[in-house]
Amino acid sequence: xxxxxxxxxxxxxxxxxxxxxxxxxxxxxxxxxxxxxxxxxxxxxxxxxxxxxxxxxxxxxxxxxxxxxxxxxxxxxxxxxxxxxxxxxxxxxxxxxxxxxxxxxxxxxxxxxxxxxxxxxxxxxxxxxxxxxxxxxxxxxxxxxxxxxxxxxxxxxxxxxxxxxxxxxxxxxxxxxxxxxxxxxxxxxxxxxxxxxxxxxxxxxxxxxxxxxxxxxxxxxxxxxxxxxxxxxxxxxxxxxxxxxxxxxxxxxxxxxxxxxxxxxxxxxxxxxxxxxxxxxxxxxxxxxxxxxxxxxxxxxxxxxxxxxxxxxxxxxxxxxxxxxxxxxxxxxxxxxxxxxxxxxxxxxxxxxxxxxxxxxxxxxxxxxxxxxxxxxxxxxxxxxxxxxxxxxxxxxxxxxxxxxxxxxxxxxxxxxxxxxxxxxxxxxxxxxxxxxxxxxxxxxxxxxxxxxxxxxxxxxxxxxxxxxxxxxxxxxxxxxxxxxxxxxxxxxxxxxxxxxxxxxxxxxxxxxxxxxxxxxxxxxxxxxxxxx
Length: 533
Known about the structure:
With 533 residues, the chain is α+β, with helices and mostly antiparallel strands. It is 28% helix and 23% strand. The chain is built from 18 helices and 26 strands. An eight-stranded mixed β-sheet has the order 2-14-24-13-3-12-11-10. A hairpin with a 6-residue loop joins strand 4 (77-79) and strand 5 (86-88). Helix 17 packs antiparallel against helix 18. It is globular. The protein starts with a strand and ends with a strand.
């Protein structure tokens, strides 16, 4: 069978996903950073706004957890954030068969886990098979491996991964920390122990301490010698360590960054941006690719099983009116996919604001206004609650807009652990979140009726399209499938898109080499500290 080298595979990826994602640096200077010689040493103090909850990147799904997990583990490949090209990391090269079913990776020499255990082809097999066993607990990683048929290990440096069907998304998936690697002691540990810190990876940092709702401490990995091919240096990380401090209060994060008590704030709020820039704090911003912040109606609930209610929700939201509470680096949604996602198409025509039509639909469906302004039907009010942990002030605007047409949206902000538990129960009437990934297959991860099925709905046409889009190698056909699936998700009310997430991070003038990866998360291997002024 004819083989394609990784160069040809990368060309295929570009033909499928031709796109450019850029970051923004405001208030600082690239030239100054480039001209300064990196220094080794120092502990980077990073503020995060929520408890990471679970540190295992093979299980975790929120950005704080994944940003920590990325420092502990490496991946077979990396993805260039500028071009989207898939490049070598733990795999020096790879071959893909003609129908994208079989992937053969050649691994680099000398890689070890932090306990000294060698990283081999068997490590890849053991980790991927463990992810399959984790099932729904590996909420992202398991979907990347869906259809896995077998993994062969011809020798210690060669691993052959075969799927039942063509898999157009897998090569990009191998660049994510969700498919990163851990030593046998971690693979054999319980899922709970892994979440709480039983993590021995190949990465440039090692976990030292994890105290819930307080901090996560990492230290430099001695002897690390295998960074990604797009890293800016070789050898060990520059930093002695990284301390993530859980600081929910935005005012405390702001003041601590200004005073120099913190080096990095990964939870910059829109109202603080201008003040931080005035204080000569660098703001590094990047739009997140993937699924935008959306409402996801649970159609197993009688209220949201009514398509007319779902249609009214969409029509009652004025997305342009959300802009005043957004960051200058954010945008309102124009599809279920963010603009920076490969194969994105503008579907804003399906997201029009028409409150009169929303009221007409609800009237026809028998939802009548009561004296308090809230509609009801058969004695049941048109009311539901959203549980969320993110900083999302735009939800309060959405709440006001829905109230105008008689829909009573209740907002409940809670700790991430509580929200995750409620989501896992499947009982929320409407779910709310986003999901970052630099591949449109993120839609299959969330909506596939035979997978996560966030809507709890029966299989339909959209599922066929999502599966087709994950298998086809024809760029034009994949574009058509993704666009049609996105359109159906909106028209059926499976997703009610609101806002595109942008990651906005503030750093002190002493922080250098801090940059985003292709999924708007960060790897601290190249980051270093200069003396504070």
